[in-house]
Amino acid sequence: MTTAASNRVKVRIRCRRCGEKFILRGRRDKGRIDTGFRQCLCDNTEDFEIDEHWE
Length: 55
Ligand SMILES: [Zn+2]
Known about the structure:
By secondary structure, this protein is mainly beta. The chain contains no helices and four strands. The protein is elongated, with a radius of gyration of 12 Å.
């Protein structure tokens, strides 16, 4: 186990087109969040509502 600082984040993404929700774990990397998320099931790639929850 590590006691590393809060560079891990839980990201909740909601698609504004179809309403699908995703919960992902990401890392902060040089000012941006890297979750690996690419697109929604409906092919939406940019119209999302994103909540970040730092741990
Ligand atoms: Zn969608």
